[in-house]
């Protein structure tokens, strides 16, 4: 049986990685904090500033298309992993479910279609308080997931 060295608590060294981040601007106070926590964690794991690309889009529904565009870039090298940042807060209409479901499905589809790991940190919360409570931890989590999965795919290749 093959067991990855990354199976248990891994040491995450992102110094060789190139990471792309797509940030939705809708609920910008939340997504700004997600981005700041994510970038700080990437840097703490050794990802250099010039190896992090940030793209901003209007909202969560636009995130998958921007991820797909980044996933197609191979010059001078492809992205090791991508990160989706956004915040969808439930309102009084069905729109919440549509945006949450479609953006989530789109993010997953891009990862599978382009065989690139994507850390999905598009928050889906009932209210602003829940989003605020999660924004920093989820930003850091997204960075760790992206680095861990990029290293795992390198190891499996």
Describe it for me?
The protein has 157 residues and is α/β, with parallel strands linked by helices. It has one domain: Rossmann fold (3-Layer(aba) Sandwich). The chain contains four helices and four strands. It has helices spanning 28-44, 63-71, 95-114, 128-156; strands spanning 19-24, 52-57, 81-89, 118-125. Strands 2-1-3-4 form a four-stranded parallel beta sheet, with helices on both faces. The longest helix is centred in the C-terminal third of the chain and has 29 residues, at 128-156. The two termini are 17 Å apart.
Q: In angstroms, what separates the terminal alpha carbons?
A: 17 Å
Please tell me the overall pLDDT. 93
Give the neighbour order of strands across the main sheet: 2-1-3-4
Described by strand count, sense and barrel closure, the largest sheet is: 4 strands, parallel
Count up the domains: 1
- Radius of gyration over all CA atoms, rounded: 15 Å
Helix percent band:
40-55%
Overall 3D shape: globular
């Amino acid at each position: 049986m093959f067991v990855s060295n990354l199976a248990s608590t891994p040491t995450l060294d992102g110094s060789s990685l190139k990471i792309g981040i797509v940030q939705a601007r809708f609920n910008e106070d939340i997504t700004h904090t997600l981005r700041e926590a994510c970038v700080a964690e990437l840097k703490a794991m050794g990802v250099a500033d010039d190896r992090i690309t940030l793209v901003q889009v209007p909202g969560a529904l636009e995130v998958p298309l921007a991820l797909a565009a980044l996933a197609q870039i191979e010059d001078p090298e492809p992205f090791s992993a991508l990160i989706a940042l956004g915040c969808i807060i439930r309102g009084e209409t069905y729109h919440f479910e549509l945006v949450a479901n479609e953006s989530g499905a789109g993010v997953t589809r891009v990862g599978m279609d382009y065989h690139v790991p994507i850390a999905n940190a598009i928050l889906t919360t009932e209210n602003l308080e829940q989003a605020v409570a999660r924004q920093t931890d989820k930003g850091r989590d997204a960075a760790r997931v992206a680095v861990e999965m990029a290293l795992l795919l390198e190891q499996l290749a």
